[in-house]
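User: SWIM-type domain-containing protein, Vitis vinifera:
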Amino acid sequence: MIDTSDGFIHDNPTIIEDVANERQNMMQQPIVSGISDDHLEEHQIYSSKKELQRKLYMMALKRKFEFKTTKSTTKLLLVECFDKECKWRVRATKLGISNMFQIMKFYSTHTCRLDMMSRDNRHASSWLIGESIRETYQGIGCEFRLKDIVADIRKQYGIQISYDKAWRAKELALGSIRGSPEESYNTLPSYCYVLEQKNPGTITDIVTDCDNQFKYFFMSIGASLAGFHTSIRPVVAVDGTFLKAKYFGTLFIAACKDGNNQIYPLAFGIGDSENDASWEWFLQKLHDAIGHIDDLFVISDRHGSIEKAVHKVFPHARHGVCTYHVGQNLKTKFKNPAIHKLFHDAAHAYRVSEFNFIFGQLEMIDPRAARYLMDIGVDRWTRSYSTGKRYNIMTTGIVESLNVVLKNARDLPVLQLVEELRNLLQKWFVTRQQQAMSMSTELTMWADGELRSRYNMSATYLVEPINSKECNVNYAGISAQVNLDTRSCTCRQFDLDHIPCAHAIAACRFYNISCYTLCSKYFTTKALLSSYSECIYPTGNEIDWVVPNHIRDKVVLPPKTRRPTGRPRKVRIPSGGEGKRTSRCSRCGQYGHNRKTCKRPIP
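Assistant: Predicted structure for SWIM-type domain-containing protein:
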């Protein structure tokens, strides 16, 4: 094997001489790559015939002439100007058995007639335009609209292209960057194998039907699972959101909150839709990944399939519903703002007596709304009657927020979507590990802020001791009994949040006990650091993957889907009672438009 210093390895002796003869020219004329430069001369070497053709097409656009291909074979490319009287022409030949092409003859002078040069260029194909705008779509969420493509091509090359051609160019550009959706499904098994090898403890699973067509996918990164078992509150929020790529589908998400009140993704899944079978499969895989968890609490919206699956897969766990979704349904059904306000106050009340008073007012205003809430199950949406440890997590907002973070990623083919999920976790783990290491407090920044706020409230509280660990705390005629041994208070804030309430802090100050020792271990900086202690590694380049044949040969075809007619939906359908938010312009400060569409003069 001989390294010819041209980026290729040759083992055929007949090629060595040809390459050696061209070595001097190659030193002066390096292999040309890319289409930004329209300079052409003899002895230039290109990595392939396609690369040379691309260069010629772009030159024709920039210099506003047209050419025709006189001869094109695997070993020869001959092109000449479309005007028969013009002498411009290029002749290139293949170098040995390599893929490289070298320009052997080039006549650079144009003598085209002006009427030939003023026509729309025949080389402005959607493929070439797609290649020229390819860099624009690097990254996720690039807002380069079709009308922008049309305007830029007209401005740069003086060529008017159609809307359809701009759309095809955009699709080709995205396809060249992201790969085809079909290939993405077939590469998924190899990706999962490498992901598990790079990240020990990671669990993935791909399910196909009898025709090898994709059905379900599950992924839980080993670092997330390790942190969850040691340092994360056992409260899991689950939800699903629609995908926007060619084959659609639904993204299932299970997430928690870390000790700093930040989103902690636990597992992801992909399926056809939110139905009984898909939710049961996803939650079963989640159960297999995390095992049996004492005091597990699952929160979701009131989707019937989720409720069935939770009771079947997690029979010992408590299931609560998202108070935000229940409140939105109340807005839709009963059209009374007072009802929604009372519901919110009742749901977040700590004392049973406080809940009973508020709910009694709600019942007097609208008995139908009270009956509706009772039918849901009071223990499922209230703090005071909750039979499980819900901590301060009342909604599925952590999953909804994650859906917003993944808004642009949901446009990607399945393999790129999964890689974006992994990459997001990698970034978060690194950032939050550094953040935890920089914290000088015993508790996390969020928990320390909560504790300080309650400490300030307790400054004027009067403590009446009962024994060495129990006391009665009075403030403004309202009393609460604190037991520091059992970490409880009759106000129930200490019991439910697992952070000392103002009454407990006043008792700690009276007995000269550190209130930090009474906080749950989940809110300590040490636990936060442990949550992100493990690293998440990338899978690297596909060309470097070492995958067993039985994994590489596994066939995964795209799912059975039928695209609906019309323009694909890009935004979700609002929940019941969810009003349209009025945007505010950051330029002029007025409502009803944004900075991009602002036409108002600045005062």
